[in-house]
Design brief:
Helices cover about 25% and strands about 45% of the residues. It is an alpha+beta fold. It has one domain: Protein Transport Mog1p, Chain A. It starts with a helix and ends with a strand.
């Protein structure tokens, strides 16, 4: 009986140990088209593809958790686009293509911002989905003859852990 109890306790302990690490991966450096960044521990690459007609590259990383959902998308265009027009197009697509009609959407004006050490322009969008607040920041920067549009999306309450992970991506970002 004692041996059976020890076996059950061992199996439960082993299951908890393996489940606690499920879905987690160590921070890793991701290199694409003309940029690289750190994908934080616990985040997953969910989209990784060349854009149509070899126009550039897009990569998205996501984290899901209780009140700590985050999505970061980096679109690299193989051309120097007008960042103001591009951000305006993003703003228009966000308001017309989403099922947010019942939600109030607020945008900031396009203004000067930096992404890491890269100067550029950006805007912020806030709204709610099913009562959950969502904040999206868009950054437009030039790098190596290309235009990058980077979006950071946070849903749920502001979490210091999620903020630190966003900072890890921003501070570890480089382009060439």
């Amino acid at each position: 009986m004692k041996r059976k109890l020890l076996t059950i306790i061992f199996c439960l302990g082993a299951c908890l140990y393996f489940l606690s690490g499920c879905g987690k991966s160590p921070s890793q450096r991701v290199e694409r088209n003309n940029f690289s960044f750190v994908c934080p521990n616990g985040w997953s690459i969910t989209e990784d593809m060349a854009l149509e007609d070899h126009a550039g590259y897009s990569v998205t990383i996501e984290k899901e958790g209780w009140g700590e959902d985050g999505i970061i998308t980096i679109n690299s265009f193989n051309d120097t686009l007008d960042i103001i027009r591009t951000l305006e197009a993003y703003r228009e697509s966000m308001t017309s293509g989403m099922a947010l009609e019942a939600s109030e959407i607020h945008f900031t004006q396009i203004d000067a911002r930096t992404f890491g050490e890269l100067p550029g322009l950006g805007l912020t969008m806030t709204f709610a989905i099913l009562g959950q607040p969502v904040s999206m920041e868009f950054f437009g920067v030039y790098c190596g003859g290309k235009t990058l549009i980077i979006s950071l999306e946070r849903s749920g309450s502001e979490s210091p852990y999620l903020y630190a992970e966003f900072q890890e991506v921003v501070e570890g970002f480089s382009c060439y």
